Amino acid sequence: MAQKETNGSNGEHTTSRPPPTPSPLRFSKFFQANLRILVTGGAGFIGSHLVDKLMENEKHEVIVADNFFTGSKDNLKKWIGHPRFELIRHDVTQPLLVEVDQIYHLACPASPIFYKHNPVKTIKTNVIGTLNMLGLAKRVGARILLTSTSEVYGDPLEHPQTEAYWGNVNPIGVRSCYDEGKRVAETLMFDYHRQHGIEIRIARIFNTYGPRMNIDDGRVVSNFIAQAVRGEPLTVQKPGTQTRSFCYVADMVDGLIKLMNGNNTGPINLGNPGEFTMLELAENVKELINPEVTVMMTENTPDDPRQRKPDITKAKETKA
Ligand SMILES: NC(=O)c1ccc[n+]([C@@H]2O[C@H](COP(=O)([O-])OP(=O)(O)OC[C@H]3O[C@@H](n4cnc5c(N)ncnc54)[C@H](O)[C@@H]3O)[C@@H](O)[C@H]2O)c1
Ligand SMILES: O=c1ccn([C@@H]2O[C@H](COP(=O)(O)OP(=O)(O)O[C@H]3OC[C@@H](O)[C@H](O)[C@H]3O)[C@@H](O)[C@H]2O)c(=O)[nH]1
């Protein structure tokens, strides 16, 4: 069969086979909504904001599958019992049988202290979980979006990071279950796309913050704010000159929905290029919340990336 060709290693619009036709069950008499959307990890921080936005559209029916490892039903309480909403306790390392048109595949612990807690489970979630969701996408002819991460660039030697950069990742370090796991997940996405014609989208998400981050989940924004509110020292991990670029969650959700509904497979960087050192961030939080608190330098963890800033040229050019 004649196929559209790839235009390079980033795979924009790559297709080697036509996409499978949607499952006939999709059109059953029980089907009410125009689009039935599965959100894995939808009880988590970004996932629950994504669900809020998707539910605003009355033509959407939303199914969340989550094992509640880092997420919570509380994040979705306003939708529980809604006729267009369904919440399933499900671990993505097990196959899932549902009839859907789109899959936002977010399920994976994101905070380093949680993804390092059970690294074997984290890599299973990334690899087996993504395989299962791709299997589902193939069976029902759904489009699938993976939330990959800036961590695929590792401790980057190019700055800012473009999608063309292949990264500098330690394959055997304590972060590998997450960053190598996401790299394999991206590989699986492209292999299913080329081999089976699955419609894929890959977002490489940079550090995101906002309401519903777990207060004690270890990420720097929630840590500093919680510490400032409690009047405790702000724990800046050494050397403090490492940088991150922080994006507000509502902007991230807009980006994810645009990517899903646009024509570009990605990978696409999603984030805010405003870059801070962790010392600068601590000073900002101190100034805004509690000028009395002190800043305390603490030991860092292995392989902490020294710099991170997205080049978002591609995201800006992408038409929704
Ligand atoms: N927040 C960020 O800054 C950031 C940055 C880059 C990438 N991401 C990616 O975005 C996604 C969401 O991140 P988040 O910040 O909302 O994290 P989160 O930890 O708040 O949410 C993850 C959700 O996935 C669920 N989950 C974990 N393992 C699961 C499994 N095996 N089966 C089913 N559900 C499972 C959790 O219970 C939780 O509800 C993740 O894929 C993460 O890798 C986030
Ligand atoms: O209390 C703290 C916590 C963290 N930090 C520093 O703040 C920086 C950011 O750390 P975070 O734990 O918030 O997040 P990281 O950037 O390491 O990983 C993050 O980015 C990519 C995503 O995929 C992950 O989900 C996310 O956790 C690191 O340099 C860390 O050393 C502190 O200085 N103090």
From TrEMBL:
<dbReference type="InterPro" id="IPR044516">
    <property type="entry name" value="UXS-like"/>
</dbReference>
<feature type="domain" description="NAD-dependent epimerase/dehydratase">
    <location>
        <begin position="37"/>
        <end position="269"/>
    </location>
</feature>
<comment type="pathway">
    <text>Nucleotide-sugar biosynthesis; UDP-alpha-D-xylose biosynthesis; UDP-alpha-D-xylose from UDP-alpha-D-glucuronate: step 1/1.</text>
</comment>
<comment type="function">
    <text>Catalyzes the NAD-dependent decarboxylation of UDP-glucuronic acid to UDP-xylose. Necessary for the biosynthesis of the core tetrasaccharide in glycosaminoglycan biosynthesis.</text>
</comment>
<dbReference type="InterPro" id="IPR036291">
    <property type="entry name" value="NAD(P)-bd_dom_sf"/>
</dbReference>
<dbReference type="GO" id="GO:0070403">
    <property type="term" value="F:NAD+ binding"/>
</dbReference>
<keyword id="KW-0210">Decarboxylase</keyword>
<dbReference type="GO" id="GO:0005737">
    <property type="term" value="C:cytoplasm"/>
</dbReference>
<feature type="region of interest" description="Disordered">
    <location>
        <begin position="1"/>
        <end position="23"/>
    </location>
</feature>
<feature type="compositionally biased region" description="Basic and acidic residues">
    <location>
        <begin position="303"/>
        <end position="320"/>
    </location>
</feature>
<feature type="region of interest" description="Disordered">
    <location>
        <begin position="298"/>
        <end position="320"/>
    </location>
</feature>
<dbReference type="Pfam" id="PF01370">
    <property type="entry name" value="Epimerase"/>
</dbReference>
<comment type="similarity">
    <text>Belongs to the NAD(P)-dependent epimerase/dehydratase family. UDP-glucuronic acid decarboxylase subfamily.</text>
</comment>
<dbReference type="GO" id="GO:0048040">
    <property type="term" value="F:UDP-glucuronate decarboxylase activity"/>
</dbReference>
<keyword id="KW-0456">Lyase</keyword>
<keyword id="KW-0963">Cytoplasm</keyword>
<protein>
    <recommendedName>
        <fullName>UDP-glucuronate decarboxylase</fullName>
        <ecNumber>4.1.1.35</ecNumber>
    </recommendedName>
</protein>
<dbReference type="GO" id="GO:0042732">
    <property type="term" value="P:D-xylose metabolic process"/>
</dbReference>
<dbReference type="InterPro" id="IPR001509">
    <property type="entry name" value="Epimerase_deHydtase"/>
</dbReference>
<keyword id="KW-0520">NAD</keyword>
<feature type="compositionally biased region" description="Polar residues">
    <location>
        <begin position="1"/>
        <end position="13"/>
    </location>
</feature>
